[in-house]
């Protein structure tokens, strides 16, 4: 991070400096007292179950040179009084972003935004010194912290932007000021808060609110909701599978089991073949979006191909682990109906006995029973050999799988329901068999990494 003077911080956050000199500087930003280093500005945040103000003294003891605070402090250290530390964090990140003339790509979508962010980063770093969102730092705390990773040498940033409610992406876009914006799709995630898929589309399109004038909007032309924007949005680039009417499209798709996938990417009359190291047809769409971003920022096809072929997934995203006993598809980072079906599609490519262990998908509101039921139907119709459903909502996955199984005794006995993971663990040795390929997937709150750990033992 480039150093900032106390004066700059005060101006950016609209605060008042107490016990300090405006000319002093901070060298980094920290919101966690456990990771504070010498020279840091500490920003204490407040949540439902914590208050960072309780750790300001600890932050100073670890080397912080200044802190923001909503309350008055009495231990004689420099601090900047503000009304709201969370807003101050956003304001300071927006100011810091404005210090740099760099390429910023913002990525959102109901499904695939983390993987898309990863593959775009891999492409851009073929030409530019690039920073990206790490892990799930895609909210109003994570995006500012990513911005603060920008150094004097940074040339490009890839920002993942998530949301649960209206106006969240609006605020993130204001911080990031993107030059290009990618929307991967519009599914059902967070429909509980946004009311409908039209509401989700509206919330996702907030990513355009602070897109630079003339900046490019890169959209999935195969998505029924996003394709409607062809008539209303300017400066767009659409991508899709086997759809030459899009600006970028892919064909000649060959799925190589659980290993990888080949395709040919086209832009107009030009094209190139590429090998994507992660299985699943949905990965082709992610690669197409990255190709569009790379092309917009001046990379040639050779550089784009190299980036796509060398990208690495974020942990717990379609992570295929081979043990002595099983092949495990660890996809427990998060889940929604679209990504569940995509995971099942990958599992269906396995030549071994196929087992899916599926858990609850959250924030689907009144649509939850129906959408879980559809996943169960889908798993059955994709000829998954063993279907294990865990959780309150997943009773609907179980019932969806049973719908077509009542006439097939052999398949019926291989569809299971458990209310908790522990109940499943009691029966796990009777369900799994040597050399099974096993998909494990659920919303993050289900903590299905415990199931992965149990299988791996």
Give the helix proportion (percent range).
25-40%
Sheet having the most strands? 9 strands, mixed
Report low-confidence residues grouped into runs of 5 or more. Answer: none
Major beta sheet, strand line-up: 9-10-8-11-12-13-14-15-16
Strand content: 15-25%
How would you summarize what this structure contains?
It contains 16 helices and 22 strands.
Question: In words, what does this structure look like?
Answer:
With 457 residues, this protein is of the alpha/beta class. It has three domains: 4-82, Udp-n-acetylmuramoylalanyl-d-glutamate--2,6- Diaminopimelate Ligase, Chain: A, domain 1 (3-Layer(aba) Sandwich), CATH 3.40.1390; 100-310, UDP-N-acetylmuramoyl-L-alanine:D-glutamate ligase, CATH 3.40.1190; 319-456, Protein-Tyrosine Phosphatase, Chain A (Alpha-Beta Complex), CATH 3.90.190. 32% of the residues lie in helices and 22% in strands. It has helices spanning 6-13, 56-61, 85-97, 113-124, 142-147, 168-176, 191-194, 197-204, 282-296, 301-310, 337-348, 368-381, 395-402, 409-412, 421-431, 449-456, and strands spanning 4-5, 16-18, 25-26, 28-30, 40-42, 66-69, 79-81, 103-108, 130-132, 156-160, 180-183, 216-220, 236-241, 248-256, 260-267, 270-276, 319-322, 327-330, 354-359, 386-390, 415-418, 437-441. The strands form four sheets. The chain has a nine-stranded mixed β-sheet with strand order 9-10-8-11-12-13-14-15-16. A six-stranded mixed β-sheet has the order 17-18-22-19-20-21, sandwiched between helices. Helix 4 packs across helix 9, helix 11 runs parallel beside helix 12 and helix 12 (368-381) crosses helix 13 (395-402).
């Amino acid at each position: 991070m480039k150093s900032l003077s106390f004066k700059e911080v005060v101006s950016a956050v609209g605060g008042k400096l107490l016990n300090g000199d405006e000319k002093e500087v901070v060298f980094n930003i920290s919101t966690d007292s456990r990771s504070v280093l010498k020279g840091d500005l500490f920003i204490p945040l407040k949540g439902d179950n914590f208050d960072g103000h309780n750790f300001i003294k600890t932050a100073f003891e670890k080397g912080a040179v200044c802190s923001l605070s909503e309350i008055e402090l009495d231990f004689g250290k420099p601090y900047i009084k503000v009304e709201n530390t969370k807003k101050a964090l956003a304001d300071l990140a927006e100011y810091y972003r404005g210090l740099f003339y760099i390429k910023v790509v913002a990525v959102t979508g109901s499904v695939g935004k983390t993987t898309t962010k990863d593959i775009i980063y891999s492409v851009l770093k073929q030409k530019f010194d690039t920073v990206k969102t790490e892990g799930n730092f895609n909210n109003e705390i994570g995006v500012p912290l990513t911005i603060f990773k920008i150094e004097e040498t940074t040339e490009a940033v890839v920002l993942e932007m998530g949301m649960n409610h209206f106006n969240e992406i609006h605020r993130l876009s204001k911080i990031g000021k993107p030059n290009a914006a990618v929307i991967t799709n519009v599914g059902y995630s967070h429909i509980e808060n946004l009311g409908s898929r039209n509401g989700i589309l509206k919330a996702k399109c907030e990513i355009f609110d602070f897109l630079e004038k003339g900046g490019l909007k890169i959209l999935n032309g195969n998505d029924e909701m996003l394709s409607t924007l062809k008539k209303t949005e300017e400066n767009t680039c659409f991508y899709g599978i086997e759809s030459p009417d899009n600006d970028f499209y892919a064909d000649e798709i060959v799925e190589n089991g659980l290993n990888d996938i080949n395709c040919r990417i086209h832009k107009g009359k030009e094209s190139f073949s590429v090998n994507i190291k992660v299985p699943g047809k949905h990965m082709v769409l992610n690669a197409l979006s990255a190709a569009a971003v790379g092309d917009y920022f001046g990379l040639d096809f050779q550089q784009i191909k190299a980036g796509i072929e060398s990208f690495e997934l974020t942990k717990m995203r379609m992570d295929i682990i081979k043990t002595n006993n099983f092949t495990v598809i660890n996809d427990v980072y998060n889940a929604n109906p679209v990504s569940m079906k995509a995971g099942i599609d990958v599992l269906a490519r396995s030549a071994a006995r196929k087992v899916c262990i599926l858990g609850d998908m959250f924030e689907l509101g009144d649509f939850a029973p129906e959408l879980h039921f559809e996943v169960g139907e889908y798993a059955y119709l994709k000829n998954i050999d063993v279907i294990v459903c865990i959780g309150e909502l997943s009773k609907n996955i179980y019932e969806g799988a049973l719908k077509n199984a009542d006439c097939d005794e052999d398949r019926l006995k291989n569809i299971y329901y458990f209310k908790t993971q522990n109940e499943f663990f009691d029966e796990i040795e009777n369900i799994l068999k040597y050399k099974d390929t096993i998909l494990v997937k659920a919303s993050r709150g289900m903590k299905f990494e415990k199931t992965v750990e149990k299988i791996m033992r």
